[in-house]
Amino acid sequence: MRRTRTLTVLLALAAGLLAGPPTALAAEPAPRAALAADSYTWQNARIDGGGFVPGIVFNRTEKDLAYARTDIGGAYRWQESSHTWTPLLDHVGWDDWGHTGVVSVASDSVDPDRVYAAVGTYTNDWDPTNGAVLRSGDRGATWRKTDLPFKLGGNMPGRGMGERLAVDPHDNDVLYLGAPSGHGLWRSTDAGVTWAEVTAFPNPGNYAQDPGDTSGYASDNQGITWVTFDESTGSAGTATKTVYVGVADKENAVYRSTDAGATWERLAGQPTGYLAHKGVLDAENGYLYLAYSDTGGPYDGGKGRLYRYATATGAWTDISPVAEADTYFGFSGLTVDRQHPGTVMATAYSSWWPDTQIFRSTDSGGTWTQAWSYTSYPDRENRYTMDVSSSPWLTWGANPAPPEQTPKLGWMTEALEIDPFDSDRMMYGTGATIYGTENLTNWDSGSKFAIEPMVRGLEETAVNDLVSPPSGAPLLSALGDVGGFRHTSLTEVPSMMYTSPNFTTTTSLDFAEENPDVVVRSGNLDAGPHIAFSTDNGANWFGGTDPSGVSGGGTVAAGADGSRFVWSPQGTGVQYTTGFGTAWQASAGIPAGAIVESDRVDPATFYGFKSGKFYVSTDGGATFTASAATGLPAGDSVRFKALPGGEGDVWLAGGAADGPYGLWHSTDGGETFAKLPGVDAADTVGFGKAAPDASYQTLFTSAEIGGVRGIFRSTDEGATWTRVNDDAHQWGWTGAAITGDPRVYGRVYVATNGRGVVYGDTAGGDGGTDPGPGPDPTPTGACEVEYTVTNQWSGGFQADVRLTNTGTSAWNGWSLDWTFPGDQRVTQMWNAEHTRTGTTVTAKNVDWNAGVAPGASVSFGFTGSWSGTNAEPSSFALGDRVCGRT
Fold first, then answer.
1. Catalytic residue among 38, 71, 90, 770
2. Has 481 been annotated as catalytic?
3. Which of 128, 291, 734, 778 is the most exposed place for a label (fewest CB within 10 A)?
4. Is the peptide bond before 354 cis (omega within 30 degrees of 0)?
5. CA dist 71 to 122, 232, 502, Å?
6. Is Hydrolase included in the keywords of this UniProt record (predicted)?
């Protein structure tokens, strides 16, 4: 369950994040060194969810247009045709990793192509950059950014309140943003390009979850929490007169302006002693509904109320569905059925046990029914059915005693929205998924409504470790909050996370190189062992025994033959054992907290690293000796791995901006290391199948090379590097883990801190050396084109093009022409340059993808506009040669 999202990011910070100023709005990029690059296709190893979804936003004027925000994993747009979510912030790079935390999303009801996101993960110094407002004119396909002079907290306490960002429904150049940390209310009058504080707003808030928290996390003032417009008080092109604002202040929670934000006043007669998590207006009936809790959430909340404010008379009515004495939760999720505004729904977001609760009223809060109720305790009757067969792990493999059930209706249910165009569709966010229904009105007829996950495509997990064994499942993962999964298929959701025991967070994972059926994992658990073993490649598990003092998972390593293990848990020193962890003994010669790994050939050899020193054991972990290696990173921001099949062959990545930082290689078991030239900074290292005709395994790293941050591949032992991701696929911070696939050349698995496990496959498939840039003559020989529209919306679309050399000679430059059959226009293209004459488009290689070997492919993508129809081009030509179609 979702207890805290801070641990993984704290580990990330400990791994040496680069601090630097955010990119200025529309700034020209600095010149970068020319790098070889390969065209990769990227997708997620499917989990379907896994993280907290604190906000869901439907557009009020266009059917089926909706967005979801996550606390650390970016924002998404709903695709009605496929009932999936499309990620929108994968372009966020390493230096701006905090901008993957989304504090609010706003969809423009005047111009539905416009969408805004307020981004920033932490308001304390964990996040090195300030927050920003991102704005898009193509529904999130592309973005422009305005940096703010303060931080935002997408993963801070109170993040389920909102929405803090709002677009004026009459003058859509006007936006408001509620800021945390005492920075007040902010406004833009030029569609989000520039922002200024609303100095007339009187109250920046004063509530903090824990004022005594010295880290600055729980002690931050949660600030301005939501903005709601009364659309009945304006007309098209004129700023809305009446605006309501929620403030994190238990005595003064709601303010109003009746002159378009010029002046503000506290609403008279309002309840006190609570925070208003949401304020939702029914302009048709003249009611402002408010959901109150005694804390800011999303985990806590012991008391709550629901109120209705009559906007015409100023009358307040307590419409709470239960007496205050009977609440042990706060209210947060709040929505109105726009087709039938008298219908209101709310959630008991902090009712963890036995389940969350959802309330529904069809008479403006006069009377209520609830999603489940007791018949004769502990038995309960549900108004709903739940089908989680698409995400079966949502049962957690549990078999709880009544009144608890599995799967649970939810927890941390702060997002709740009825589709404004469809009274039967409702979605709500939980700590692990988005649930929804498409027959909600069955609730009112007395029959059951059907709930199922509506989360496919939304992947939000924080990844701590990854392994890809040479046999068995292609991927095993160690994840925050949901433990981890064994993927036997990357395109299907696993049936269950690791259980027996079920760690809340798995911190480390390893397998025996010569016996991949033997797997070990370590992790965090409130009560129970912190280590577990499997003898069937991670399909089934059993817990080990903790040595005294263990408080957390730390890192763990399996001997090459699976006969012994070395464990460096939190709370005590490094330990070793033979067999499966029934009797641990303290290792000598290595400090507590060291990172441990195993040699992949010699089962008696293990390695460790701590504070700039590399340690070696040749007796199964009983004793370690510090090697003579010098010049390694001084801190503990290090990941290192031993090469499969190469005894004593060790690669070490890590460092920090104020000291040694890069990639090191040892061929003598860590006695000496050589730093690779040209690698400015590296944070992970992993191995995959060797390229055809190569004798050494493929290397992968998340690094900065040639002044460029990215995911890199080397097929020649680190002599040269090829970037395999692009600027559209960066995923924020990728410093926890990386591994290739020992069975598929070119495939790489990348750990992200909020976007799950992403994996890439080369489009080329030739396995040879990446050709360098050269002249760009028109290539000759056969060609083939695959043209795919990946997203489409009213007036816009996104497409991918894959061009394959089906001839017998290499291309050293290419230029592809096509003509759109309608009025389509390319608005932006990546991985290629383009020119346009009327409806005819020419896409030409850039420096790094000019060379295409026979049988290899190159891919590029673009966004475009259209009206009428969006038919595909009928033909593509490479010079005077027409390409085949796939």
1. 71
2. yes
3. 778
4. yes
5. 10, 33, 23
6. yes
